[in-house]
Amino acid sequence: MKNSSLWIRTAIIVVITLIGIYLVFGPRGSVSGEDFTWSGIKENLAQNINLGLDLRGGSHLVMRVKTEKYLKDLTENNQTAALLAAQEAQLPVSDASYIAENGNYQVTLNVTDPSKNDEIIEAVRKKVDFSVWNQSTSGNSIIWTLPNQAQKLLKEQATDQAMKIIDGRINAFGVKEPLLQRQGASDSGQILLQMPGVDDPERIKKLIGAESRLALMKIVSPPNPSPVQTYPTKEAAEQSIAGAPNRRVMVYADRDEMPTANQQNPPDKPKQFVVVETPAVVDGSELRDAQAVSRTGNDSDYQISFSFKPGGAQKFGEWTGKNIGNYMAVVLNDEVKSAAYIKSQIFDSGEISGRFSKTTAEDLALTLKSGALPAEIEYQEERTVGPSLGADSIESGVEASIGGLVLVILFMLFYYRGAGVNAVIALLLNLLLTIGGLIVLDSTLTLPGIAGLILGIGMAVDSNVLIFERIREELRAGFDVRKAIDLGFDRAFITIIDTHITTIISSIILYLYGSGPIRGFAVTLILGLLINLFSAVFVSRTIFMWLLERNPNMKKLSV
After folding, report:
1. Does residue 476 sit within a domain?
2. Where would I find the H helices in 264-385?
3. What are the DSSP E strand ranges found in 395-489?
4. What is the spatial distance between Cα 537 and Cα 467, in angstroms, rounded to a whole number?
5. Rounded to whole angstroms, what are the CA distances from 536 to 163, 176, 216, 461, 542?
6. Which of 69, 295, 401, 429 is most buried by a 10 A CB count?
7. pLDDT, position 283
8. Taking a C-beta distance cutoff of 8 angstroms, is the pair 92, 111 a contact?
9. What are the tens digits of pLDDT across the range 181-210?
């Protein structure tokens, strides 16, 4: 029975070891003969492990969401929406104004009949979200003021929204293992982004800061398939909307004038302006998908097709059904990119036409899918870690790890003699499986992570020292070799568990409250400790069991 148990333990160790070797050194994808050469093995190792910014090189960006601009835009939009809500209800409101500066955000409606204040407030409440604003009245004015606590809350929400959008854009771009987190005070709007291995940081910056505010709006133009009503100047367009607060003037970008494949720049042409109705029929928040599509197979002739979520498709379908014969504007970032004549009811899709390049179209489609940033992004700090510096860090880390490992091995062999070989085998297996665990978890290895590996080596040796010293004590107490080994492992196990649990709890706290590099250190250390329970206890004991199996009457133990 004992022999059967020993073979089962050995099979478990062999299988786990082979899995670890494959995870760390094995090829990914197709296998070739080069994968089993020394250079191929090193290349596989480099591909299998995710290296952090400090090891691989890349870009380090600190950006800030302009939360003050976000609150200003929110205040201005609420002012327009409040005025429209009161006018649609045909209530006595003369005009509206707002203040958005120096931390003061206020919307004011001027009324001609204060006795209707309650009706006006109720009409506005149905259309505008003033739930976190303080409301008051003064003479012929109804005033909404944004308190400091609400300002802080909204700034935090804007930062969270920006982080989600940036995360979506970066992940879709294909940056592997980016670090994205807040920095500074919760309402400062600061965001830290690290992108290992990025060789085109400028494109990433453009992608992050790119606006993607899509809206479909009605164009104010004669309802027939004649050319869209345009104006040669902004002033002329503004004169046409006097007294109509729900209309806006926008630049009309005629996509037929985009450069062809043989032109470097579009021909000079005076700007044109169109008038659109607000609010938008549907906006980018209703998008389900957006894709870059080639019309002719030419890399300079792409367009963006998009589709709506069910709610947006329903609204779009109802509106187009009522506006057959009118023009619809596809508005991107407050510029009319194209105008469509509505011939029939449309529900769930549309397109932004134009001779976009392949890269531009793909980036635009990506930003549309990820959504519009709540406010502009400004860059406060930018650092680039070159691949050569990362290589130097790897070399230093590897040298430190190997140096520590060699010293530990020499000490164990010198001090514990034959049993030291047992400890060395368990130690190397611990290192192999820890790296394999990082690969399985798709975790990123950084310099602090290498420090965690070195500390794990020390903890693994500590476990063997506890076991071996306990075996020595049992031998001095007069027990035979077999009994001394059994008692040594059994009695040291409690101490090993105790030290490992306390260290793991500390590492979990580091992981929960630490930043990226600290969390990398914690993950590596936790993995090393958990694996050590297998390597220093299970594997080491199995080796002793094999020694006893080969020599059942062993009188002395080299320990």
Report:
1. yes
2. 310-322, 358-370
3. 444-445
4. 9
5. 43, 34, 66, 8, 10
6. 429
7. 77
8. yes
9. 888 777 788 888 887 777 667 777 777 776
User: Per-residue pLDDT tens for 16-75?
Assistant: 999 988 888 887 666 565 666 666 666 777 678 877 777 777 778 888 988 898 899 889
Q: Are residues 407 and 544 in the same domain?
A: yes
Mention every residue, 6+ apart, whose C-beta is less than 8 A from residue 543. Answer: 422, 425, 426
**What is the residue type of 191?**
I
Q: Is the pLDDT of residue 466 over 70?
A: yes
Rg (CA), the chain: 34
Least confident of 63-72, 165-174, 274-283, 499-508: 165-174
Strand partners, 491: none
Question: Residue 465 is part of which domain span?
Answer: 2-57+386-550
Confirm if 559 and 492 have CB atoms less than 8 A apart: no
Strands (E), 14-127: 50-51, 58-65, 93-101, 104-111
Same domain as 76, residue 42: no
pLDDT of residue 105: 94
Element (H, E) at 393: helix 387-440
Distance of CA 426 to the CA centre of its chain: 38
Peptide bond into 279 cis (omega under 30): yes
pTM above 0.90, yes or no: no
Residue 146's CATH number: 3.30.70
Helix (H) or strand (E) holding 340: strand 335-341
Domain boundary among 151, 169, 187: 151
Query: Of residues 263 and 199, which shows the higher confidence score?
Result: 199
Query: Is pLDDT of 267 > 60?
Result: no
Per-residue confidence (pLDDT) for residue 380, from 0 to 100: 85
Helix (H, G, I), strand (E, B) or coil at 199: coil
Q: What is the dihedral of CA 494, 497, 498, 503, to 10 degrees?
A: 160
Q: What is the mean pLDDT of residues 90-95?
A: 89
Q: What is the pLDDT of residue 255?
A: 47
Does residue 317 fall inside a structural domain?
Answer: yes
d(Cα 535, Cα 450) in Å, to the nearest integer? Answer: 19
Q: How far apart are CA 423 and CA 540, in angstroms?
A: 7
* 191 part of a folded domain: no
What total of structural domains would you count in the chain?
A: 3
> In angstroms, what CA-CA distances link 297 with 260, 300, 301?
14, 9, 7
Higher pLDDT, 202 or 548: 548
* Helix, strand, coil percentages for the chain (3-state, nearest 5): 55, 20, 25
pLDDT at 257: 39
Do 417 and 528 reside in the same domain of the chain?
yes
